Amino acid sequence: MNKAKGLTLLTHYALRIEGEKIIYSDPFHLEKAPQDGDIILITHEHYDHLSPDDIRKAAKPDAYIVLPKSCRAAALKAGLNEKRLLYLAAGEEAEIGGIRIEAVPAYNTLKPFHTKGKGWLGYVVTVGGLRYYIAGDTDNTPEARQVKCDVAIVPVGGTYTMTAKEAAALVNTIRPAVAVPAHYGDIVGTVSDAEKFASLLESGIACDFARD
Fold first, then answer.
1. Which of 42, 71, 115, 174 measures 20 to 30 Å from 89, CA to CA?
2. Number of folded domains in the chain?
3. What is the pTM of this model?
4. Which strands sit side by side in the sheet containing 22-25, from one edge to the other?
């Protein structure tokens, strides 16, 4: 496998995975409103990750929205339907329509933007027999280095998350078949960060920019 099968990086850290179900993660600045998402994953409550308007553009009326337990108040304030919300904490798992979802901590180690105590998340979702790691806004943490996956989607823009060099170090540790750089080109980070990330990957790890 040299491509992230079924995965499209839409904008920033907004992802779409097409398999047995349609999954979106952190929809943001969506140009269209397909409303075809069965599962919407939200990593944390910052506006570029929990965007109510974009969630509504992406989600079917009966979609499940998965988000950290610590984001309940933010989700309700945003007007999301609590009956369709599924809360997870780090280390917990859920299954929706045959899709397994594992919650992984996402946090900064030396920055104040995403502290561990907030309980924010990344996810590992299994689609079509492949494990996709959506790292969320994180640094190279001990928990991230324990993840087993086929595809890793990691932030590379720096400032609020890992730099390209730090993200490559994480990926070279967990060694997925494919790595996808994200969290650049909107708000923070540039295409050159993604290109630098790709250049630092070790042999045997393919890079897929996965752009629409």
1. 174
2. 1
3. 0.95
4. 7-11, 14-18, 22-25, 37-41, 59-68, 85-88
